[in-house]
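On clarity, I found the account of how folds are encoded harder to follow than it need be. What matters is that the chain and its backbone geometry are given together, residue for residue. The format is easy to grasp once an entry is in front of the reader. For illustration, here is how one protein appears when written out as sequence plus structure tokens.
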Amino acid sequence: MLSFSSVFSDFQDLPRAGHPPAVPDVLLKASGLSFRVESRILWQGFELTLRAGERLGVTGPSGSGKTLLLRTLAGLEPLQSGELVFDDRALSHWSMPAYRARVVYVPQRPAWREGTVEAALRAPFAFHARRKRGFPDGQVRELLRGTGRDETFLHQRTERLSGGEAQIVAVVRALLVAPSVLLLDEPTASLDSTTVRAIEDLIVHWVSASPDRAYIWTSHDRPQLERIADRLLTLEPAS
């Protein structure tokens, strides 16, 4: 049986001299957000507070803007109104590379450049924000084992992956880069039930492994939301 505590043990911050920095109670806060697509308002005056350690589930009918909400929180869609604050700093005071290194979006349908799975997993570690960390080979293999995949999966071509396999790569890569906040857009929608539960276990153990982590997870699957969330938000279109 895989010990998830060992998978994430190397993701902790290194000890520092003196007292450790306090973990902010509120990691991410959205105030007064609105999103309009042409003449249609998806949501207006939207408020959200995500606290350290929190597991927030988001549901709502198709067209309610769940994906656009996550993309907005990830800094991938421009703010049309309102303010977004992460770690006590407004989004405008963050450089996008630094922000996206700590707030990571996992799309429902990941698109990968042609190459191997291993190359896709290594890509973020070439960026300046993570270059000093080095690629965590041991964690890669443990995480893959947690999803029922062995080392041969690393050699598969990304252009030949099924939808579910592409989701596995996206989740594993997101966990490897050790963000503070994960924004998960139906990350198990294309997976079989066994792998769904394995991915849920990996992510739940990830958030429990450090006090300064949280996630937002969208899903249409009510039983899944009951398993993975301790708070539920339902989006309803404004008009």
Observations:
- The chain has one domain: 4-11+24-234.
